[in-house]
Amino acid sequence: MLIRRKILIGFCSGALTWLAGCGGSRHETTEKYYLVATNIKIPYWQSANAGLLRAAQQMGVKAEMVGPDTFDPKAEHEAFQHALAEKIKPAGIMVSAADPSVMQPDIDAAVGQGIPVITVDSDAPASKRLTFVGTDNYRAGLMGAQLAVKQLQGKGNVAIFTMPEQANLKDRLHGYHDGFETHLGIKIVETVDIKGDARIAFDHTQELVDKKIIDKIDGFICLEAIACPEVADVLDRNKIGGKVVVAMDTDQRTLEWIKKDRIAGTIAQKPFTMGFAGLGALDALHHYPPSPLEKPWAQDPLSPVATFIGTGELLVDKSNVDNFVSETSQK
Known about the structure:
The chain has two domains: 2-135 and 270-312, 3-Layer(aba) Sandwich (Rossmann fold), CATH 3.40.50.2300; 137-268, 3-Layer(aba) Sandwich (Rossmann fold). Helix content is 44%, strand content 18%. It has twelve helices and twelve strands. It has helices at 2-12, 19-22, 43-59, 73-84, 100-112, 137-152, 167-180, 198-210, 227-237, 252-259, 271-287, 321-329; strands spanning 32-36, 62-66, 92-95, 117-120, 132-134, 155-162, 185-193, 219-222, 244-248, 265-268, 308-310, 314-317. The strands form two sheets. The chain has a six-stranded parallel sheet with strand order 2-1-3-4-5-11, with helices on both faces. A six-stranded mixed sheet has the order 7-6-8-9-10-12, with helices on both faces. The chain starts with a helix and ends with a helix.
């Protein structure tokens, strides 16, 4: 029993905790963790919150997702500051950095106060955050590029919908650029900043239709969740076929448009896993913090902290969408 206990404690001191083995009496009744994000009412973040709360329940701690209902980096900053100012200091904070330049001072200030901070979904790599938990966004971009190349048969003009300031979307775009590099017939002719507003994606696509520019666009690529369902909707309303649409994430409308052949496929992330695994990582960092917390552990070859915890990504298209929906509906 003594040997088993030593092994268990040693494992719990790592950056990612197995909740069943490391929970229990070590948690205090006041222990609370926060997830800070933007657009928190969309299905993506509701899934992340479900993972957060599932982990909190298993661990016997409190957890809460906070942030604005819209894409508003300033409001996210304010939500972070509010969590930091709570009477009982947060045990840890995970944050999706909508704008890394806005969130970096907040992250650094929290770590300076001894509060472990990790990023999820969208990183702030120049900050003092300890770990990034989420998608390999460069690989997600490569996967999307491979699908687009196949669907376009190696040639065509492409419009991209994104939010340029987000680090994760920059990485995805990098993946697309590299995926298109050897296919000189594919050209990115337009990049649209949707500013976190689905209406911009809808209106811009409709404008392309109204101005007859749509005939010059062969493909639409969305680097985040909310744009491509709007693109597919506009194409469907106007009875425009023959366009390749590659989406990101798996909200219900995206999956329905895949079934209807309006979206060729989407790159699925695992926000539930981000919330679940993120809380495990924060819990370990709270109870077994590396010393000093502010050290740039990513540059230390003997770091006890993982710089990146990948949660996985997969392609969902017509061939597996029904199975994907069936599996996710059972959870």
